[in-house]
Amino acid sequence: MPDTRNPIPDSPLSSKRDQLVENALKLFEQEGFHATGIDRVLEVAGVAKMTLYKHFRSKDELILAALRLRDERWRNSFMRSIEKKAKTPRGRFLAIFDFLAEWFADCKFAGCMFINASAEYADHDNPIHAAAAEHKRLVEKYVCELASQAHAPDPAALAAQLCILMEGAIVLTQVCPSENRGCAAAVAKQAAEVLINDALGEQAP
Amino acid sequence: MPDTRNPIPDSPLSSKRDQLVENALKLFEQEGFHATGIDRVLEVAGVAKMTLYKHFRSKDELILAALRLRDERWRNSFMRSIEKKAKTPRGRFLAIFDFLAEWFADCKFAGCMFINASAEYADHDNPIHAAAAEHKRLVEKYVCELASQAHAPDPAALAAQLCILMEGAIVLTQVCPSENRGCAAAVAKQAAEVLINDALGEQAP
DNA sequence: CAACAAGTATACAGACCTGTCTATTCCATT
DNA sequence: AATGGAATAGACAGGTCTGTATACTTGTTG
Fold first, then answer.
1. Which of A95, B107, B153, B205 is deepest in the core (most CB within 10 A)?
2. pLDDT the model gives residue B5
3. Does A115 touch chain B (CB under 8 A)?
4. Shortest CA distance to A6 belongs to which of A59, A65, A54?
5. Phi/psi at B122 (nearest 5 deg)?
6. A53-73 tens-digit pLDDT
7. Quick one: pLDDT at residue B205?
């Protein structure tokens, strides 16, 4: 039996806490936030209810922890994938959409958790909605940095356009998963090429 | 007191039924589906519970009726706005994004109800999710007809690109309502111009 | 007037939800 | 061996949810 205790009580390494957040993340992503009851999380995580309420003050706090984990992982995966796949600015822009295509191909793809969160918690002042907005802001900031490195005349404008393509591809794949919608990432990639050429000039690397 | 009865019992003109669907539509849109209880709909609509269950077999049936009404109204408004505003194919494509800008400017804008529905009812086989997918399919079909009228070499491809821009602008405005996000429609419009030029040629009307 | 259709009010069943409380077990360190 | 922190099981309170059942009102039509 492994040592599941933690010398620093409230540290993020606390094993039981991790089990909770990990399983909550999966369930919230697959089934939704309101539709997933606390008891279901506890059952899947194999953790007692009192343990949850020792680590989190409420279900909303657990949701926020799950979203923080998701944000960290998703953006890391996003950035690493892009930087590994391509070295030129143009190649990195296009690698965004290859990343999306791989994501969409996962049979467990259930849309963007942050879009879903802002749908379920519509009030903009709700911390959950705010966390979703912050995630999108950080993603756009990264794309904007790519655009700066590409010496785009207006990096923010190019980034905004590419992010709109990203979100559009995500949401169409989520809402219309069947049909010929598997190609949303490819369509977005083609559109991105046209927009990049327009912003950078056709010859830019 | 007006005559609220209806000679055809299950016709869509049934006044009480209309009151239910109308108010359910508003509440589901503003607060979400799971977050809006039946009792809240009844209270706002001023209708007794038994009347609801005489017209609908379940809450899900009421949601489907609300989505049907929303789909009909939204697409009518969309198509009429575009056809009224512009006569040339290129003008009509751009009018799409003016329509979005007006929609986003409404202080009660709460995102796309169909995107929200597919977020809350993630199972693709769920009739509610299917209704959302059908709505998006019909919108894209209309944009595809516009592209055909514009004599685009590949109408479906142009329509798919423009629809991705639409959905991206919608979702970014929903998730990040504040900041400089009010301009998502304008950014999408600029991107659309580039894509249309690429597909049709710069001189096309 | 009588029959009828539509809606109302109200209570209720049964399920599920979040969050709390208590008593107990396990295990590592002292 | 004793102590104490962490987790456990399980019951429970109090609320909300959907959907049903019953008895009543109202207005129209034959």
1. A95
2. 37
3. yes
4. A54
5. -70, -30
6. 999 999 999 999 999 999 999
7. 66
Average pLDDT over residues B72-94: 96
Question: Cβ contacts (< 8 Å) between B154 and chain A: which residues?
Answer: none
Between the CA of residue A101 and those of A86, A88, B172, what are the distances in Å?
16, 20, 20
CA distance linking residue A23 with residue A31, whole number of Å: 12
Nearest nucleotide over every DNA/RNA strand to the A56 CA, judged by C1'? C19
Amino acid at residue number B135 = H
Q: How far apart are CA B65 and CA B44, in angstroms?
A: 17
Q: How many CA atoms lie within 13 A of A45 on its CB side?
A: 26
Given a cut of 80, is residue B2 above it in pLDDT? no
Packing angle, helices B89-105 and B127-149, rounded to 10: 140
Q: Which two tokens stand for residue A55?
A: 């680590």
Check CB contact of A79 with chain B, cutoff 8 Å. no
Contact criterion met (CB below 8 Å) for A41 and A32? no
Cα distances (angstroms) measured from residue B132 to each of A101, B59, B119, B121: 22, 17, 10, 10
pTM of the model: 0.92
Residue of chain B minimizing CA distance to A191: B161
Please report, for chain A, how many H helices and E strands are present, in that order. 9, 0
Residues lower than pLDDT 70 in chain A: 1-14, 180, 203-205
Q: Assign B137 a pLDDT band (cuts: 50, 70, 90).
A: very high
A129 interaction partners in chain B (CB closer than 8 Å): 175
**Is pLDDT above 80 for B180?**
no
Contacts of B76 by beta carbon, 8 Å cutoff, 6+ apart: none
Nearest Cα to Cα of residue B26 among A124, A127, A122: A122
- State whether residue A186 sits within 8 Å of chain B by CB: no
Q: Are A187 and B122 within 8 A, CB to CB?
A: no
* Residue A32 near residue B128 (C-beta atoms within 8 A): no
The nucleotide lying nearest B1 (C-alpha to C1') is: D27
Among residues A19, A41, A17, which one has the least CA distance to residue A29? A41
DSSP assignments along A95-161, one per residue: HHHHHHHHHHHSTT----HHHHHHHHS--TTSHHHHHHHHHHHHHHHHHHHHHHHTT-SSHHHHHHH
